[in-house]
Amino acid sequence: AKDLIRENPEYAGILNAVRTLPDRSIILSTGPTSAGKELVSEVLKADLENAGRNVVLLSGDGYIKAWEEMPIVNLSGQPLRDVDNPIVMHWDWVEEDILALLAGEEVDIPAFDILTGKSLRHSGRVISLPKDAILIVDNIWGLGENMTNIITRANPASCVSIFIDAPVNLRFARKLVRGFERGENWQRYIQRWPLVRQREEEF
């Protein structure tokens, strides 16, 4: 899969474009669920490091709120957590941590356990952003109002957005496989998919 990414002409153009970004710039890796954002971000990080750049990757997955904080919606008589709505993100945590990283501070990043629904403000995993580093932020709603406002207030040296997408059927298949591998109820993914698509259209 990583080789396929590198063979994509669009990826080569992206790599060349971000290779010379100023220090302490931000790359927003965004796109719909199961489009491959995490994998592309990891490949981009590795290739930038091979080119001599220092890169730190910040995943939005850890900033998801606990299950009990999520709204419940009714879909065809089934109560479902509205996990594909940007309101499930701790945007205040995202802003606090990005501002701290750009200021050169160490950050104890949060964590979300998808099997238990627990959210921890501090996971014990500490990261920092060296002066010469680029920060890659991986988040579904990277182009949304919440993230846009955070970037405006953070005022990085530069900010580039990369939108990653894949065919709907492929994303659905990836979602099922990933849920199965995690030990989740794959039937819930089938029930939830219409809501996922609805939220993608909205946000």
Describe the structure.
The chain is of the alpha/beta class and 203 residues long. The chain is 41% helix and 20% strand. The chain has helices at 2-7, 9-18, 37-50, 91-102, 145-154, 168-181, 186-202, and strands at residues 26-30, 54-59, 72-75, 78-81, 107-108, 111-113, 118-120, 126-127, 133-138, 159-163. Helix 4 runs parallel beside helix 5 (145-154) and helix 6 (168-181) packs across helix 7. It is globular, with a radius of gyration of 17 Å. The model has no long low-confidence stretch (mean pLDDT 93).
Write a short abstract of this structure.
With 203 residues, the protein is α/β, with parallel strands linked by helices. The chain has helices at 2-7, 9-18, 37-50, 91-102, 145-154, 168-181, 186-202, and strands at residues 26-30, 54-59, 72-75, 78-81, 107-108, 111-113, 118-120, 126-127, 133-138, 159-163.
